[in-house]
Amino acid sequence: MIRRLIRMLRSPSPILLAYASALLLFTLVSLYSPGFASPAHVSTLLIVAAFTGIVALGQTMVIVGGGIDLSVPWVLNSAAILVTAFAGGSDAALLWAVPLILAGGGLIGALNGTAIALLRIPPIVMTLSTNVVLQGLLLIGTRGFPPPAAPAALQYLANGRIGPVPVILIFWLLLTVTVVVVERLTAFGRYLYAVGSNRTVAMFSGVPVARTTITTYAISGATAALAGILLTGYSRQSYLGMGNPYLFTSIAAVAIGGASILGGTGSYLGTVAGALVLTILSGLLPIFRLGNGALAVVYGLVILVTVSLAAPPVRALFQRR
Amino acid sequence: LRLGGWEAPLVVLICLVCLIGTLRPSLFTMDQFAIKVAAALTLILVATGETIVVLRGGIDLSVGGILSVATAVAATRGDPGPLESLFWMAFILLLGGGIGMINGVLISVLRLQPFLVTLATWSIVEGAALIVLPSEGGTVPGSWVRAGYTVFLWLPLPVVLLVALLAWWTWFRRTRLAASIRAAGSNERSAFLNRVSVMGTNVAAYGLSGFFAALAGLYFSIQTGAGSPTLGTQFVLPAIAAVVIGGTSLLGGRGGLAGTVFGAFILTLIGDVVFLLNLSSYWQPVVSGLILMLVVVITSLTDAASDQTGVEQ
Q: Count H helices, E strands: chain B?
């Protein structure tokens, strides 16, 4: 047991490292600014982290499968605008609007995945085009009219608390458990890692490569849409541009979480830690009176550093004989 | 007619010009031509750098950030004298080139996928642009804006710049460097075995891409008289689209600037067609995105067909 612990500390898994850095960062900031660790502030941070975490869920699947999804911002934004427009402020309409929008997000993801898996179109080009097309369609569709406020049920889901625990946190926890089970115990999970680590080998081993790839993008579309729906509850409205920050944060969360961006490794558990790290970082801004520019610089640096640590030449440096 | 060359985009461009001509015949004047060149030049410049990177077998997303930071620096210089102006213009261009060269070094040393490195630098550089110029606006020096109206031999500045760019390319494409970039782009391994430097070609390609993105930003801010710290985001996809529509292969090695220039004009003229058809201007990105998807699907299908015929049974 102790020997195992020592071995773990000597070459820690990326996931453990991600949680350790989240904890370290949180402790340091709390020492500097004691209000940071107050229960109210912590629960706000967790709510914000949940949105990044939910968008990054699909991004994790796509990246583990060896791709990338740059269509996240406007899939999220489309879902947000549509849910407020469909519901018109009433909870009853959510019963059909939410499933419809989630299916729509999944369908757009599946279209991305189909073009990437079957037509061999580079993921960057395909998903970036989808992003721009959706952005344009949304601008045409809304014509500058702000949709009505978010229905009360969504506001409760995003801002409400059961006792001291935010509702969305429970939701996120359930989602995380589900994803980990899917990753570890289902055929799709095994296929996913096989496709991500080596497409050709996977194909010859009888893995349904195309179907697996398409599914990852469909999940990404659906989780982006889900985050968009929940986000309208958090901000009590939908607006154009609300998805833009999630392009970099979703990828950064996955990178921090230890998924080799080259595919084949990683787990959503790591991404959850990544979302926490990013949220703590964004919480630094008001403390140090920094603007959005500084945040973008920090996000970029974080992506660059974590991705460099996973790069083959750097890994070779750390490997012991 | 060969798909994946510059001929197909030229045909599409001619069809577009004819379409616009029938919709509004009064548009065929020298002045209108100059206006179109001025409108397309920012995209042409960014796409020039992107073409070189794609020929090298990579992709450069950081052009978005570099464009933004170039306009941000240009719009916060106050009222500099002539020497100071020259210094700052050179600074902007070298800054772009320098950021690009860093991209090239990181990609080669870390052996990472180009889109990851340039995605990270895009975020960093765009953040820097927001720090330099926190909101849209600022003021580009009046002397710079006036210089933008310079006319050489009846030719306005944008037309002169385009001619200069094409002249530069006809020289550059025959250089050893261009040949090495192409070779490394089509097959890095065999290029390496033929003593082509992987790092050298990367640094040169991404450096040039950064330089051209900065030039595009400088040109745009002189044209509009203002800066925008988020401008670049609007140009990332169109730049890649112009390259791809222009027939340069995303697999590297094949293509050139002529097609890219046609591609950039096609994307610009789509905006005109949208306007002449009385549609909302928001249709332009939608149509451009759909055309890009169509072109990549067609090229991937024709590539697959030629792959199948090329394989020996």
A: 13, 2
Q: Closest Cα to residue A303, out of B72, B155, B131, B113?
A: B113
From CA B265, how far away is CA B44, in angstroms rounded?
A: 8
A241: nearest Cα among A83, A74, A108, A128:
A74
Q: What is the ipTM of this complex?
A: 0.83
Q: Which residue of A has its CA nearest to B122?
A: A300
Nearest chain B CA: its distance from A113 CA (Å): 13
Cβ of B127 and A130 within 8 Å? Answer: no
Contact A296 B124 (CB under 8 A): yes
Q: In order along chain B (313 residues), what is the average pLDDT of each group of 10 residues?
A: 67 84 75 85 95 93 94 87 88 95 92 86 92 85 80 82 93 91 86 84 94 95 87 87 87 87 90 81 83 81 62 34
Most A CBs within 10 A among B110, B122, B135, B306, hence the mutation to make, goes to: B110
Distance CA A220, CA A226 (A): 10
Least Cα separation, residue A5 to chain B (angstroms): 31
Please check whether residue A232 is in contact with residue A225, taking contact to mean a CB–CB distance below 8 angstroms: no
pTM of the model: 0.85
Residue of A nearest to B112 (CA): A311
Cα dihedral A313, B202, B209, B269, rounded to 10, equals -100
Q: Do A313 and B109 touch (CB under 8 A)?
A: yes
Kindly state whether B284 is in contact with chain A, defined as any CB-CB distance less than 8 angstroms: yes
DSSP assignment of B207-256: HHHHHHHHHHHHHHHHHHSSB-TTTTHHHHHHHHHHHHHTT--TTSS---
Which residues from chain A sit within 8 angstroms of residue B282, using beta carbons?
136, 139-140
Q: For A255-282, how does the pLDDT look when each residue is reduced to its tens digit (9 = 90+)?
A: 888 776 666 777 888 899 999 988 998 8
* pLDDT 10s digits, A78-88: 999 998 888 87
- How many angstroms from the chain centroid is the CA of residue A243? 12
